[in-house]
Amino acid sequence: xxxxxxxxxxxxxxxxxxxxxxxxxxxxxxxxxxxxxxxxxxxxxxxxxxxxxxxxxxxxxxxxxxxxxxxxxxxxxxxxxxxxxxxxxxxxxxxxxxxxxxxxxxxxxxxxxxxxxxxxxxxxxxxxxxxxxxxxxxxxxxxxxxxxxxxx
Length: 152
Known about the structure:
Radius of gyration: 16 Å
Shape: elongated
Distance between the termini: 32 Å
Strand order of the largest sheet: 1-2-4-5-6-3
Largest sheet: 6 strands, antiparallel
Number of strands: 6
Number of helices: 4
Order of helices and strands: EHEHHHEEEE
Mean pLDDT: 90
Helix content: 10-25%
């Protein structure tokens, strides 16, 4: 799986928002490219071998528009953006999301998942982030939030 960021090189950590967090702070956009090979590897690692995640005929048979990414993989990538934004001195204390629509992964080049976020609130217990995850301009996760706390 290829990961890129809009504002930094892939291996350059972003500044931790906990240090300077204030409501409305926009976090750097993260981009993840998902291929069918990524889905097969995730299926093996997770044990979710449902063929809708790697076989076109199976996906078509249940009315899907094509092979789809695992929902937990999509959610996990959004969480990865959070941990990358916050750095190693923070941890995700709470994380929630709802699936809005499937991420269809065509053969070949794959598809790009874009995760953006902003600081929603600075609370005594930590920083609450609101996330948006889109694919092809369509929101794929809804009501996605994370509470991040500084490690002590």
